[in-house]
Automatic annotation (TrEMBL):
GO terms for molecular function: metal ion binding; oxidoreductase activity. Residues 57-117 form the Non-haem dioxygenase N-terminal domain. This is Non-haem dioxygenase N-terminal domain-containing protein. Transmembrane segments: none annotated. Keywords: Iron, Metal-binding, Oxidoreductase.
Length: 117
C-alpha cells in the first residue's frame, strides 16, 4: 500500500472514533490492511521461525501458601521467577470463587464499553 493511500485510510478510520473495538464489534475476521506494515529489509532476510518450538505459560499453584514457611518461600520464588522471565503467569488454587471472577469480568467489560464522554 502506498503511504498516501495508507494515510487516507488511517484518517478515515480515525474519524469514525470507533477504534479497534468498533472493528471487533462489527465482527471483522481479517486484520485491516492499515494495521499491516511491510517487513523491513532486515526482517525479510531473517530465516523463517522454527515451527516445532513450543512453550508453556508458567502456572503457579497457590495451594498451601498459608501453611509452612518453606512452601510459602518456594511459591514466592516461583512467582518471582515467572515475573522476571515471562512477565505474567497463571495462578491456580487461589481460592477466589468463579462467581466473583465472572462478576469482575462483567464489570470490566461494562467499564470499557461505556460511551466516550
Amino acid at each position: 500500500m502506498v503511504n498516501s493511500e495508507r494515510l487516507v485510510e488511517l484518517k478515515a478510520f480515525d474519524e469514525t472514533k470507533r477504534g479497534v473495538k468498533g472493528l471487533v464489534d462489527d465482527g471483522i475476521t481479517i486484520v485491516p490492511s492499515i494495521f499491516i506494515r511491510p517487513l523491513s529489509p532486515s526482517l525479510a532476510s531473517l530465516p523463517p521461525p522454527k515451527p516445532n518450538i513450543s512453550f508453556s505459560i508458567p502456572v503457579i499453584n497457590l495451594n498451601g501458601i498459608e501453611e509452612g514457611s518453606n512452601l510459602r518461600k518456594e511459591i514466592i520464588e516461583r512467582i518471582r521467577d515467572a515475573s522476571k522471565k515471562w512477565g505474567f503467569f497463571q495462578v491456580v488454587n487461589h481460592g477466589i470463587a468463579i462467581s466473583v471472577l465472572e462478576e469482575m469480568l462483567t464489570r470490566i467489560r461494562g467499564f470499557f464499553e461505556q460511551d466516550d464522554e
